[in-house]
Amino acid sequence: MKSFAVASIIAYSAVLAKLAAGHTSFITPCPRYSPVGENCPALPAGESLDTGDKGINAPIGSVQLGGNMPLCRHTTPWPTPAASWTAGEEVTIKFNPSSAIHSGGHCQFSISYDNGKTFAVIHEELRYCFLGSKPSGLTNTPSISEYKIKLPKDLPNSDKAVFAWTWVNASGNREFYMNCADVEIKGGSSSSYSGKAVTIANYPNYPTIPEFNGDYETGIKYYEDAKNITVSPSGSSSSGSQGSSAAYFASSDSSDKTSAAPSADTSAAPSADTSAAPSDSASASSAPASTTQQAYDASTTPADVSESGSTAETDSVSPNAHAAESAVESTAAVDDASGSCADGLMRCSGDGYQICVGGQWSDDYSCGVGTVCRGTEGHIFCDFVGSTAA
Fold first, then answer.
1. Mean of the per-residue pLDDT values for the chain?
2. Which of 62-71, 190-199, 289-298, 352-361 bottoms out in mean pLDDT, i.e. has the lowest?
3. Taking the C-alpha atoms of 368, 172, 130 and 221 in order, what is their torsion angle to the nearest 10 degrees?
4. CA 294/CA 270 separation, integer angstroms
5. Neighbouring residues of 7: CB distance < 8 A, sequence distance ≥ 6
6. Of 212, 227, 387, 388, which has fewest CB within 10 angstroms of its CB?
7. Which of 8-22, 57-71, 93-107, 237-251 ranks highest by mean pLDDT?
8. What does the DSSP 8-state code read for residue 324?
């Protein structure tokens, strides 16, 4: 029987991170350097399409595996806007139909006027993003592949605005996803827009939101407690005391991170007040009523995050991840006749996959639409149909 109890095993099984090819990205408007986007502008000189294992569908941050990328994935904008929008109108955000949505989670849609340094939220789909309602168990199959968003009437006009989608997944490795599209905003009625700061989690120097395990209130406090900020083509500011040159993102005290989080160069990290930090073991749903705000200047890439996705500890992987990978390799030849297996082990089953729970193989779980399960070098992952496993 599929149940959320299985999710607790997935959380510390680093193998699930190999489902990278089956994550998701939006395709309309076209995100920066997307190989699957619609009506994409020409690439900036010297840039290439965002393909490969860490391509457009992959997260920009992973607590278990590191390999973090800068916010927006790429800091150089399209030479021309990918879309032209009118403030106050309804726009359609379409997602890649070949997606694995990790049981939903928290999505935000936001706008920036300083090339991705500062984002203010214009729409949220919290808890059940891509699903619309609470699922009965783990699922990778989306029920919703597009959202219609009403743009605020008071968005400032600009031909250099940046639209962003961010997502914290409900099940699997703790990840943070972000795509950005360069857009034109016209017909606006204001010179600035005020809204909540984007919430960042599962990313260096930001809190870790744990697996939901069926509790879709997990992490909600971070979103509810986000500061209000004001963004405009002439500069951005927050409701707090921080300067307008920094980006403001919803965050927690610096100690609210798990020991498995990728290491960061703390000399380049924003400082935070740790006097009221929650313990690492506390779930995000029980976070304190007030959180502190951290500044992150996305115009300069921190020492531990580069556009290629490498970290200060090259391809850093937590010890637990190495242990899980070793477990896959050492138990790959499980005695199928007896039906026994090592807890946390995953294997392909047809086009989908199974997870070992309590020494027994689970029912089949489906990969995303258009993807199939593949195994290579002791790992399994969901890959696009017709592609060649690396």
1. 72
2. 289-298
3. 180
4. 6
5. 103, 138, 171, 172, 211, 212, 213, 214
6. 388
7. 93-107
8. H
The token duo for 107 is 């999505």
Average pLDDT over residues 152-166: 97
Four-residue CA torsion sign, 116, 276, 222, 68: positive
How many C-beta atoms surround the C-beta of residue 164 within 10 A? 22
Q: Which residue matches tokens 């297996």? A: 341
Please give the radius of gyration of the chain, using alpha carbons only, rounded to the nearest integer: 20
Q: What is the CB neighbour count within 10 angstroms for residue 198?
A: 25
Interatomic CA distance for residues 110 and 105, integer angstroms:
17
Q: Give the pLDDT band (50/70/90) at residue 349.
A: confident
**Higher-confidence position of 339 and 331:** 339
Q: Is 28 left (phi over 0), alpha (psi -120 to 50) or beta?
A: beta
Quote the Cα angle for 145-347-358, to 5°.
Answer: 105
Residue identified by tokens 């209130």 is 217
d(CA 349, CA 346): 9
Whether this model's pTM surpasses 0.70: no
Vertex 308: Cα angle to 307 and 312 (nearest 5):
90
β-strand partners of 148: 92
What is residue 16's DSSP assignment? G
Q: Could you tell me the CA-to-CA distances from 345 to 13, 265, 353 in Å, in that order?
A: 8, 33, 11
